[in-house]
UniProtKB/TrEMBL annotation:
InterPro entries named in the record: Bact_Sigma-Reg, GAF, GAF-like_dom_sf, PPM-type-like_dom_sf, PPM-type_phosphatase-like_dom
Protein keywords: Hydrolase
Claim: Hydrolase is one of the keywords in the record: yes
Cited Pfam families: GAF, SpoIIE
UniProt keyword Hydrolase present: yes
Name this polypeptide is given: PPM-type phosphatase domain-containing protein
Domain PPM-type phosphatase: 263-480
Length: 481
């Protein structure tokens, strides 16, 4: 039997579905039956035959073939508009007793492993289980092992019912005990599954259906909950590590953009890697007297905590020794000794360090390049030349004597310092600095400001290769007024 409302709401779709099913009959006499199942309409074609089921008919929400002693029934189901899809328990029975269950769980694991964003995991959990296991899913998460759970994500097979369901859930006492709990939410059959990983309670996965939860659905939901909990825990650990790396990286860089009256200065710094692992490149610019500044751009071998220790040591030593009045070469010698004294924890360091002094006709610079990519000077005429003598990198040899190079920047002259994230940017077998590639790029920057020069170099690095860079990048540009 069908109500008039049900018949009118799906009449056209049901007729098309019926025509599709009738077109599959074998020529034997058959009977057409429409059955109203509350939230869906099932169309059945009953005939005397025993051939295979064939392909899915039309846009049916569910379909299949059943047999009796003398009849074969092809059937297809249509969900009525305005109602949430009915869970197909046929697949549950088959899945829980065969490879279908493993396939579903494997797909769920792949989806959960596809993000390391803890804010995304609850949404993925809900969309895995709806509508296959439940009509709706609400995920609650806890900030710590013992804190209260808070709503993180709500999903309903019928999106128009989400707001109403959210209001119902706001009035429900969310259980805090371990194990599966029954929730009392209106006419829904609702269960809460704990999300626990590595002995920590991370939250709850609440599911609701109009009918009773089959044992197979509970079994699969428990397994999904375990996998979801580990995915959420991994995402949180990843996010915490990334946040710690970013905080430590910020602590190793200048806290503020330096004020440099009479000096056009710009720096670009980009850490590589998805988690921005700390270490690698660094830069600094700071005053040591009236009209006198010190600058540095360096690259520590490797990344991680050991590299961060050398980065912090170098940055603070440069500032302290510079303000104590030590010359550039003397600072480099003392920093080299300090790194060597770190013993096995030390990392090699390449460093371009200099002092800038304003003079009437531009800037005078005393410069030391310790194993660092060559510093380049751009003249207003477009001529580019190297201005620093290559010397030993830091942290290798105890007896090293550093010599300062005197460099003058006249009006409009530009000094460029970069780390090997620029010069060794790779595209196939070529490096960006092959055949003087960086000098050629700089030659095209005549009459540009320091910021414009730095940005042009960065764009060239990005455009040189399609794949993301695996190395940190730092670009420092000084321009004489």
């Amino acid at each position: 039997m069908m109500t008039a409302w049900a018949a009118m709401s799906v009449c056209d779709e049901a007729e098309r579905l019926t025509a599709d099913l009738v077109g599959r009959v074998s020529g034997e006499p058959f009977e057409v039956v429409w059955i109203h199942n509350g939230e869906s309409v099932q169309v059945e074609i009953r005939e005397k035959a025993d051939d295979a089921a064939g392909d899915r008919p039309g846009e049916a929400a569910g379909w299949g073939v059943t047999f009796t002693t003398s009849l074969r029934t092809r059937w297809a189901r249509i969900d009525l508009p305005g109602r949430e899809p009915v869970q197909s328990d046929e697949w549950l029975i088959e899945a829980a007793n065969g490879p279908g269950w493993l396939g579903f769980l494997a797909d769920a694991s792949d989806l959960l492993a596809g993000t390391l964003d803890p804010e995304m995991v609850p949404a993925i959990i809900a969309q895995i289980v709806v509508p296959r296991l439940a009509s709706w899913c609400a995920v609650y998460t806890a900030q710590n092992d013992y804190g209260p759970v808070r709503p993180a994500y709500l999903w309903h097979a019928d999106e128009t019912q989400i707001d109403g369901l959210r209001e119902e859930l706001d009035e429900v006492q969310i259980p805090s005990e371990d194990g599966i709990a029954v929730l009392h939410i209106g006419e829904w059959q609702s269960l809460a599954f704990p999300l626990t990983a590595r002995g920590r309670r991370l939250g709850l996965m609440c599911l609701g259906r109009r009918d009773r939860f089959p044992d197979e659905a509970i079994q699969i939901a428990e397994d999904v909950g375990r996998r979801a909990a580990f995915a959420l825990d991994n995402a949180r650990l990843y996010a915490q590590q990334a946040a710690a790396n970013r905080a430590l990286q910020r602590s190793l860089l200048p806290p503020d953009e330096p004020t440099t009256p009479g000096l056009d200065f710009h720096v670009i710094y980009e850490p590589a890697g998805e988690t921005n692992e700390v270490g690698g490149d660094f830069y600094d610019l700071f005053p040591v007297g009236e009209g006198v500044w010190r600058f540095a751009i360096g690259d520590v071998c490797g990344t991680g905590p050991e590299a961060a220790a050398v980065t912090g040591l170098a940055r603070h030593a440069l500032r302290l020794l510079g303000r104590e009045g030590y010359g550039v070469a003397a600072v480099m010698s003392r920093l080299n000794q300090a790194i060597l004294e770190e013993g096995e924890r030390a990392r090699f360091l390449t460093l371009l360090h200099g002092e800038i002094r304003r003079v009437d006709d531009g800037l005078d610079i005393r410069l030391v390049s310790a194993g660092h990519p060559e510093a380049l000077r751009l003249r207003p005429s477009g001529v580019v030349d190297g201005v620093a003598t290559p010397q030993s990198l830091l942290g290798v040899f105890p007896e090293v004597h550093f010599e300062e190079d005197d460099v003058h920047l006249g009006p409009g002259d530009v000094l460029l310092g970069v780390t090997d994230g620029v010069t060794e940017r790779r595209s196939g077998s070529r490096l960006l600095d092959d055949d003087g590639g960086l000098a050629k790029l700089l030659a095209e920057c005549v009459d540009l400001s320091a910021r414009a020069v730095a940005e042009r170099i960065r764009r060239a690095v990005q455009d040189f290769a399609i794949e993301p860079s695996a190395d940190d990048l730092a670009i420092l540009v000084l321009r004489a007024p």
